[in-house]
């Protein structure tokens, strides 16, 4: 079992985690420093790096949960690859098509723009 006692995540912890994900690029820079030094990061360092990079204070329980989920080799350390690599892949997964990244939003905008252009073209041709 991963946890000694099963404790859920509060809404505030959930919200903090997603605020953190919105600032993932800032944190990734801090995490890369550890990567360049060929070091992994412990829970206290992780929490401190999140705070310095994003201004968010994650609870000890949330940090512990993040480590239980992402610490693939169970060494109580997160490497750049274990966390940032997985999170960046996850954030882009919904927009990936045949190995290329596409924004769902931009695809929707293009589709809507094409419809509008076709309608305008039809109206233009009717007036001619």
TrEMBL record:
GO cellular component: mitochondrial intermembrane space; uniplex complex
Molecular functions (GO terms): calcium ion binding
Family annotation (InterPro entries): EF-hand-dom_pair, EF_Hand_1_Ca_BS, EF_hand_dom, MICU1/2/3
Domain EF-hand: from-to ranges: 58-93
Keyword terms: Calcium, Membrane, Metal-binding, Mitochondrion, Mitochondrion inner membrane, Repeat, Transit peptide
Main location: mitochondrion
Gene Ontology BP, a term: mitochondrial calcium ion homeostasis
Keyword Transit peptide tagged: yes
Stored SUPFAM superfamilies: EF-hand
Compartments it resides in: Mitochondrion inner membrane; Mitochondrion intermembrane space
PANTHER family, per database record: CALCIUM UPTAKE PROTEIN 3, MITOCHONDRIAL, EF HAND DOMAIN FAMILY A1,A2-RELATED
UniProt-recorded name of the protein: Calcium uptake protein 3, mitochondrial-like isoform X1
Species this protein is from: Notothenia coriiceps (black rockcod)
UniProt gene name: LOC104953989
């Amino acid at each position: 079992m991963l946890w000694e006692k099963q404790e859920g995540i509060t809404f505030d912890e959930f919200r903090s985690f997603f605020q953190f994900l919105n600032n993932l690029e800032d944190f990734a820079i801090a995490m890369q420093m550890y990567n360049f030094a060929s070091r992994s990061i412990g829970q206290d360092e992780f929490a401190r790096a999140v705070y310095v990079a994003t201004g968010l204070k994650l609870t000890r329980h949330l940090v512990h949960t993040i480590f239980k989920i992402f610490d693939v080799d169970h060494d109580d350390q997160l490497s750049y690859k274990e966390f940032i690599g997985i999170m960046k892949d996850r954030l882009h997964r919904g927009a990936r098509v045949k190995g290329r990244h596409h924004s769902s939003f931009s695809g929707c905008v293009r589709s809507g723009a094409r419809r509008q252009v076709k309608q305008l073209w039809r109206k233009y041709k009717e007036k001619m």
